[in-house]
Amino acid sequence: MASIVQTLASDNRFSTLAQAIQTSGVDETLRAAGPYTLFAPTNAAFDALDEEERDRLLGNAGRLRQVLEYHILPARLNWAFLIRSTTGNTLQGERLQFTFELQAGGSPTDVRTAYVNRAPIVGREIRATNGVIYPIEGILVPPERYSPQGPPPAKGTPGAGEQPPADVGPTDQ
User: Fold this and answer.
1) How far apart are CA 106 and CA 163, in angstroms?
2) What H or E segment, with its residue span, contains residue 121?
3) Which of these, 74, 115, 121, lies nearest to 93 by C-alpha position?
4) pLDDT in tens, 60-105
């Protein structure tokens, strides 16, 4: 089994993220023992940003580091634990929100779609020696300090800025 950095580098869904992690210096963190949970934007998530916004993000190592650290939790959240959680704290100490759409008539473990700050989690956990990776279809944006609102919706996510569907809600089992 490989580290988070090695796993991302070997999966073509994450080539933009792998380069961004290296450019920002976050690779040093993700090579360490961890454990970590990384909500990993796919190439499609980066491609969904408008070109100017993507270039501005990828061209600013400091801002890129801040955004990428907002995708990392300093703990290993396996799927069974994640679906029983409503929030998690990032490396920066900021809070991410987890919401879930359940199968019709399903129990809290019958998750149809999971979200982190409204960005869809598009696959189950990918295991690494120092944590787990969850592919997401959005770029999580850290909130402005002391914002009275919760975390902003992910960038490049369909419906970003809209409320999640009515049947989306946290599970607290």
Assistant:
1) 22
2) strand 119-121
3) 74
4) 999 999 999 999 999 998 887 887 788 899 998 999 998 877 666 6
Q: Please say whether the beta carbons of 117 and 98 come within 8 A.
A: no
Query: Which residues have a Cβ under 8 Å from the Cβ of 83 and sit 6 or more positions away?
Result: 100, 108, 109, 111, 114, 171
Q: Which residues contact 32 (CB under 8 A, 6 or more apart)?
A: 130
Domains along the sequence of the chain with CATH: 4-169 (2.30.180.10)
* pLDDT of 156 strictly over 60: no
Strand ranges for 49-110 from DSSP E? 72-73, 87-89, 95-102
Residue 158, phi-psi category: left (phi > 0), alpha (psi -120 to 50), beta (remainder): beta
What's the pTM?
0.81
Phi then psi dihedrals of residue 9, to 5 deg: -65, -25
